[in-house]
Amino acid sequence: MENTDSTNALTTTQNEDLTPLEQDVLDEYERLAENMKKLASLLDNMAGRPTAEILDGLRQLERKTSLVFTLLKASVYSIVLQQEIYSGDQGQEG
Q1: What CA–CA distance (Å, rounded) separates 51 from 56?
Q2: pLDDT tens per residue, range 59-85
Q3: 18: part of which helix (H) or strand (E)?
Q4: Are the CB atoms for 36 and 28 separated by under 8 Å?
Q5: Which of 22, 47, 71, 82 gives 18 a disulfide partner, CB atoms 3.0 to 4.6 angstroms apart?
Q6: pLDDT tens digit string along 13-50?
Q7: pTM of the model
Q8: According to DSSP H, which parts of the chain are helical?
Q9: Cβ 10 vs Cβ 2: under 8 Å
Q10: Please, which residues have CB within 8 angstroms of residue 54's CB and are 6 or more apart in sequence?
Q11: What are phi and psi of 48, to 5 degrees?
Q12: Rounded Cα–Cα distance for residues 80 and 73 (Å)
């Protein structure tokens, strides 16, 4: 814990010498490092899980993705059909 305190004190001293842009860049790198640690931990956790469990999860994801795709296609088809009907009505009135 003592090492962390000395690192924080050093970082605070260095932060006073940095421009706001440099500090923002360092903060982003710190966030990126934390996200990479989380990703590594998640991947390590997943690597320890049985393959069958992962495959079941992927199948569920595939079903959900397929459903969303089907609903999206239906929505697009509905919009196109409505536009054609609207265009047909405009052509007959004009």
Answers
A1: 9
A2: 999 999 999 999 999 999 999 999 999
A3: none
A4: no
A5: 22
A6: 556 788 999 999 999 999 999 999 999 998 888 888 78
A7: 0.40
A8: 2-15, 20-47, 51-93
A9: no
A10: 46
A11: -85, -10
A12: 11
